[in-house]
Amino acid sequence: MAEQKGYLVFDIGTGNARVAVVTAGGEVTALEREDIEYVTDPIYPDGRYFSPEGLWTQISAMARKAIAKSPHITLIGITSTSQRQGIVLINKDKKAFLGLPNIDNRGREWEGGIEAEEEVHQQTGRLPSALFSAMKLVGLKARQPSLWKEVKCITSVSDWVTFELSGILSYEPSQAAETLLFDVRKKAWSEKLCNIFGVPSAILPSLVRSGTVVGMLTFKKAAVLGLSERVPV
Q1: Model confidence over 74-88: pLDDT tens digits?
Q2: Which domains are delineated in the chain?
């Protein structure tokens, strides 16, 4: 089979995770799929979480399988996409320690205490609800202050994947729009929204548009994926 150029694509959905190798022309040459393991959090009526370490081990193994099934593909890039509203929490050691998926509603008990609903709606196009990322943080801060103190940065699930691959933290704007902390008109993080939800703006990474190369695959993660060369992420 003739050599072709292609991409490694990570897709972290709500129910399962998928990793594919896709040619530059859009043909899927290999696809791996596995269910994501969520844990019920007993201290919230409707809390769910996942282990970033466990999910990374799972999807990196899937990536190795997909790459092995496509020996004729030369990878020219790696990209990711994911469920909206989900976030991953990262500590001061740059270690992802807690994943809160879109089905995590740990902030529901505090929905009624959020003031300035109209201000939130004006800036985000959404009303405060447990669905969105900021409310997950409100619930975490209220009931798990020790975990909250560990949070140095947050990012979306898809941007966490690129962080694991490249070591560069970022947040893609359409994902940021699901946090309730992003002004959709200004296309920027909002200090006012951060104050409303009690979230320090310092934990929000730089915004990077979709399609932008955030960095190169690190040597360590190239070895994990079974690649001999670094690839743009």
Answers
A1: 999 999 999 999 999
A2: 4-225 (3.30.420.40)
